[in-house]
Amino acid sequence: MRIVLLGAPGAGKGTQCKYIVEKYRLLHLSSGDILRRHRAQGTALGKKAQSYMDSGALVPDDIIIDMMIDEIARAPAGGYVLDGFPRTVKQAADLDKALESKKQKIDAILNLQVNEKIIVRRITGRRICPKCAAVYHVENLKPRVDGKCDKDGSLLLQRPDDTAEVVITRLKNYNEQTAPLVDYYKRKNTVFDIDANEEAENVRDLIFRKLAPLA
């Protein structure tokens, strides 16, 4: 099964991907995680993407497309969930071309819909351990000791792209450039609109019900 997961930053795509991957034994391909890996490793791609990521701007299509199609080409036959890619209609069209050349296609698109006020609260409350990359939240995933990682005691940090100003920029970019993807996919594929304002477990159960006929 090949799935595209759409939704604004903070819609819960990463959390839902974990549930989907575990249940259906799929590979989770997160463009954000892959970009951060390249940036941490100091690759040429990571250096190109860094300034865009830190300001909340979308990384240019050519960088993202080449990176993700390479990752997809190495994915196992069992399938994958694309998280954060495609983000523009151009990216989606190029992805479709790459898949069609291998006689493959996307099986389902999950469109997570969340109120923007909830998104801002979710993202700005996120904290990360700079040493082990563990993720916490000031409201719903607190560490045992305030401000310190449970695993190694490192001081938790807020990522540069998790501030309110950057989040608002990211949401603006999403609404302008990524939201049209829903219309693009509705003309070609099965799109499921998912109310993701609920607790993660409720959203998970709704997704599983939608995917059941395809499994």
Attribute tags:
single chain; 215 residues; alpha/beta; Rossmann fold; two-stranded antiparallel ribbon; 9 helices; 7 strands; globular
Furnish the topology, listing elements before pairings.
Layout: E1 2-6, H1 13-24, E2 27-30, H2 31-41, H3 44-55, H4 61-73, E3 80-83, H5 89-100, E4 108-113, H6 116-124, E5 126-128, E6 135-137, H7 164-178, H8 180-186, E7 191-195, H9 200-211
Parallel strand pairs: 1-3, 1-4, 2-3, 4-7
Antiparallel strand pairs: 5-6
Helix pairs in contact: 1-9, 2-3, 4-5, 6-7
Outline of the structure:
Helix content is 48%, strand content 14%. By secondary structure, it is an alpha/beta fold.
Describe what this molecule looks like in 3D.
This protein is an alpha/beta fold and 215 residues long. The protein has one domain: P-loop containing nucleotide triphosphate hydrolases (Rossmann fold, 3-Layer(aba) Sandwich). It has helices at residues 13-24, 31-41, 44-55, 61-73, 89-100, 116-124, 164-178, 180-186, 200-211, and strands spanning 2-6, 27-30, 80-83, 108-113, 126-128, 135-137, 191-195. The protein has a 5-stranded parallel β-sheet, with helices on both faces. A hairpin with a 6-residue loop joins strand 5 (126-128) and strand 6. Helix 2 packs across helix 3. It is globular. The termini are close together. The relative contact order is 0.19. The mean pLDDT is 90.
